[in-house]
Fold these 4 entries.
Entry 1:
Amino acid sequence: MAASPTRSPGRPSVTDHAAIERAAFALFQEQGFDDTTMDHIARAVGVGKRTLFRYFPSKNDIPWGQFDQSLAHFSRQFDAVPPTTPLADAVHGCVVAFNTFDESARDQHRFRMRLILQTPALQAHSAIKYEAWRRVIAEYVARRLSLSAGDHLPRLVGHVSLAVSVAAYEQWLDEPASSVTDLLDEQLTALRTYLA
């Protein structure tokens, strides 16, 4: 098939978030996160830097993938919970479901989480992402309890859920044979048992 006359020879007609992530992760692994630039990634993908910025506003956003879409899905998961479901069960189930991924993506997800949790340059950016994730939970808890998302209890549930999730991921990174969803389920159950 003939190439489009408006496209440079050798340049792919389209790219996507996944292709950019794969190229970026390969570079991060090869030369380190700090030493990889957006120029390096753009060259590896075969696109201009301006095109790259349309997919990811910064290098720090790449390890987070399509996080805004994931958060929208997370919120929809809570919206789908029957109103008769106990609040703790709803939060527990949605947090585990949010962290469920296809087994074929395990290695890439492990590398993603290692970057997010262990790269000092990403910590400030990660705090912004964590806050958005906690807010989804706080807003759900607030709706269920007729409170404001900024009230103490909804905010606390968001923070505790994040802490349990981070602890599960840290354990998963240390124990490659483990399952992050099993660890999350166990730790959320243990916390609920302890608090009861």
Entry 2:
Amino acid sequence: MKIKKRVIILALFFAVVTAGLFYSYLTQLEEPETVAFQKTEVLVAAATIPENTLITQDLVMLKSVPLESVHGEALKSMEAAVGYLAKSDIVAGEQVLSSRVASDLTSSSLSYRIPDGMRATALSSTEVSAVAGFIAVGDRVDILVTYTDIEGSGLTTLTQFQNLEVLAKGASTSGETGAQTDTGVSSTLTLLVTPAQAEVLAYAMQSGNLHLTLRNPSDTEKVLVDKFNRSVFDSWKTR
């Protein structure tokens, strides 16, 4: 009888130990499954977005995906992509990555900063023609063009362009050595123009001498001014 009791006790003991080990094993199996099903929302393409396309709300959507499948560059809000251009094709269902969206327009390629229907064109400048180097990116300027001979009147100056935006500045130089400085005069200015203005500006650069005037940022009004040359010199000594 004592032997049978011992056997029963040992059997119960091993049964409890086995049950405990089996429960621990099952718990370890379930823990990874719990982690795998943790999800978060990321931005995905609702339809294929071609390169250089403006991303609108109908082209993207938020989707809940497992944490382990989230790309390190995945965007997680509509605001991070809507209103910006796609740098390359984004396939429908694909996560929208920060490296594929031109969201930082100030540091992106200049082409991404040109509005539809507009053009960027560059012109050379000197200390006199560029307001002593005080023109900065984002400023607006007028362009005066002086032609050698128009209608037999000798030199003629026209205010040919008004309120043009400066998109970029070229390298600045100061002194005879050509060393770059922050206070030097820019050798080139890139302006935002319409296609028609681009033609006129190209002609002006080939046929006349350009002089820029700097505008107050809040002053966008275009002023009607007449040309100035020898024929009106006596009546327009001052204006």
Entry 3:
Amino acid sequence: MARITRRGLTLGLLAGGTLAACGNGIGGDGAAIIDSRVDQTVNYMFGAYPGTQDLMARSAGMLVMPVVTEVGLGLGGTYGRGALRVRGATVDYYSQSSLSGGLQLGAQQYSHVLFFMTAESLLNFRQSDGWAVGGDIEYAYLDQGETLRAETTTSRLPVIAVIFAQTGLRVGATIEGTKYTRIIP
């Protein structure tokens, strides 16, 4: 007979609540919801961080993840949905997920955009069956009023990640170890 402990119940409720919060109406108007969230996120990013407009202009495409939820209580995980845009048009939809373990406690939400700075990096992303973030990525963490660092805007790396709009009670946000998978909303 299985024994339910407080810790097991807490973890189960936390995981269930996280997954329920991530739903966006699969089988319904999921694509329209994702596109609306992506539009709002891009508009916010351009208004708050004007330097990102230059990144978009120089990039081959960008993956916009409007809301990523990250939760950790011993075990942790992240989940979010977004859209890949090429020349301003949505070409695919993706989910983002990761799992982690260790000393962690808290929850947060944030937005992030991956700018594919070369046609090759965009092609590799689109042709992969589940793309995982590797070491060839530059991070730009943005806070209110901060501008992009010069080394970010002149980087020769194939992918630049911009993380912004963090809220919650967890220190730091990272997309390392994150897997992106094409979805049909």
Entry 4:
Amino acid sequence: MVAVSECGECAVAEDRRAATPEDGVLTRIGQAIMLHRAGDREEARNRFADLWQEIGPQGDAFHRCALAHYMADTQDDPRDELDWDLRALEAAEGFVTERPVVTGAPAGASNVADGPGPRHPLVALSAFFPSLHLNLAADYAGLDRPADARAQLLRARASVNALADGEYRQSLKDAIDRLERRIGRAAGPPR
């Protein structure tokens, strides 16, 4: 994962957890994150894997997105990290594009996701997009796929502009710039 402040997504997850205290899955994701940050990568990975099995492919999109996003950070193989980052993006994109349409409601009337499981403010899930794209760009750069990395950086830059001004947004913009420069240096001089 690309380091972005001490994790703006964590703040999003914390806000979400505070809004729905009955959400034990987010609590358990948070516990695994703490294990990883304390240096117990293997135990964090094991707990994330157990949670992933428990949630399942039809589970709550916010849970799947957050879990896959952090599971990627525990991977030893860069291809596995890419796979988990792609799962996180898939969960987020699928949720945003496949939400049920409320008949008779004005367009954009609800900023809360409907469906099974906890109700999520869309802003909570959409706040992940810049970081998801940035992580994918870093994954592709690490796998020597600069064209894919640049494509993800463009998506990261576009989605970061949708965020409110603040420290999280600025830290993402700075991280995008740093990765962009790194990819540019790795490409060498233009031919």
